[in-house]
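Tutorial, part two.
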Amino acid sequence: MLKPFYQELHPEAGCDEAGRGCLAGPVYAAAVILPADFSDPVLNDSKQLKEKTRYALREMIQKVAISWAVAKIDAEEIDQINILNASIKAMHLSLDQLKKKPSFIIVDGNRFKPYKKIPHATIIKGDGQYFSIAAASILAKTYRDDFMLEHHEKYPQYNWKKNKGYGTLDHRKAIAAFGRCSLHRESFQLKNDVSI
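Running the prediction step on this input gives:
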């Protein structure tokens, strides 16, 4: 079971991103404020859960959260400002949308930029430790997956319905065969390990 809060200042918002290591598509981020008495035995880091469970938890999170929001930065801007800055900007944009202002922010990972003078803490593997970060990881992951599935219909050659834009062998082979499309991140270098 994950922990409900990192510290005593309430409300506390958890933030996480999805798609940072992808070759294509936006990076998504989410911010979630959960009720003080929230508990769920299934909620965990989105990477530890099956797809069906993630989507079921998304529905639950959106119903019970005090406030939640999702934001994205597209591939073109990722290329302009780099993926770390894009990930942090997406988190800031999701925090901007919260209906309730948090008193404290907890962020998965080890890098963040101050947000509106609200105190924050970065927590390595925080999505496997705190409910609100795990909830944010699920929202970011499922909304990003929805985006990639939608765009798979336009670019079926890249098989995004399976790889979601990550640098799998089939995705890298497709890029070698068909080139990149407008959703690919030009600043992400491909390893020369694809045999066609």
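The chain is about 35% helix and 15% strand. In part three we will examine how such features are distributed along the chain.
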